Amino acid sequence: MWRRLSFFCPKSSLRLAKDGISCKEKNPFITFVLGGPGSGKGTQCEKIVENFGFTHLSAGDLLRKEISSNSENGAMILDTIKEGKIVPSNVTVILIKKAIESSKNYKFLIDGFPRSDENRIAFEQIIGVEPDIVLFFDCPEEEMVKRVLSRNQGRVDDNIETIKKRLQVFHSLNLPVINHYLERGKLHKINAVGTVEEIFENVRPIFAAYKKIMK
Ligand code: UDP
Ligand code: MG
């Protein structure tokens, strides 16, 4: 069910967190967007934003911003990303929490997170909410490698050595998260092969169904 901020908590009764309204009180509608490197998460998130008014929070982008803003964790985050490993959960979750709390929107796409069960549990504990739906972009490994190697975004981790490590981490740590949400009936598996438009036609009905409930 969509839960409108204005419906559940009138503005006057909201307690302000440091950067806005606390996540729990905000009662956001959360979509986790999962899939291997190069599966098209970011690209499809842009389409969902355009068509359904979500705010897109890419965990990878939030971490890269920390690196470029010379924050105290920057060097550690950079080393972790270069190795294709997972940044400590509390670091990522706090960045996501701040982004949710400082946004006026209540519908969020959290892209590339959680990457492990530990990430998932930290999110539940620190943010205090669970995702409403989870998308999984299912793409063959060969296709993902091809896309990452040809995307030319200047990323330190888009080279074949790091991609291999990222794929290993994806299989060992991210697939258990996907199975967790499958068991809970929250998972929407999407065939992520085809053109951007073709893939979006697999995504659209999921959000269109929720939109109907909202009206
Ligand atoms: N990362 C992380 N935790 C997250 C999201 C990303 O540690 O919640 C790190 C991890 O090292 C990952 C890298 O950031 O390999 C890039 O993530 P992103 O989602 O941007 O890229 P993708 O793997 O989807 O291409
Ligand atoms: Mg991405």
Task: Provide a short characterization of the protein structure.
This protein has 215 residues and is α/β, with parallel strands linked by helices. The protein is 54% helix and 14% strand.
What does this structure look like?
By secondary structure, the protein is α/β, with parallel strands linked by helices. The protein has a single domain, classed as 3-Layer(aba) Sandwich (Rossmann fold). The protein is 54% helix and 14% strand. The chain contains ten helices and seven strands. The protein has a five-stranded parallel sheet, sandwiched between helices. Strands 1-2 form a two-stranded antiparallel sheet. Strand 1 and strand 2 form a beta hairpin. The longest helix has 24 residues, at 160-183. The chain binds uridine-5'-diphosphate (UDP) and magnesium ion.
What gross morphology would you assign? globular
Lateral arrangement of strands in the main beta sheet: 4-5-3-6-7
Q: Specify the number of helices.
A: 10
Q: Main sheet, how many strands, which sense, barrel?
A: 5 strands, parallel
Q: Which ligands are bound?
A: uridine-5'-diphosphate, magnesium ion
Helix content: 40-55%
Low-confidence stretches: 1-16
- The helix-and-strand class reads alpha/beta
Number of strands: 7
The helix/strand series, from N terminus to C terminus, equals HEEHEHEHHHEHEHHEH
Distance between the termini: 11 Å
Name the CATH superfamily assignment: P-loop containing nucleotide triphosphate hydrolases
Under CATH, the topology can be stated as Rossmann fold
**How many structural units, i.e. domains?**
1
* CATH class label: Alpha Beta
> What is the multimeric organization of the chains shown?
single chain
Strand content: 5-15%
The CATH architecture: 3-Layer(aba) Sandwich
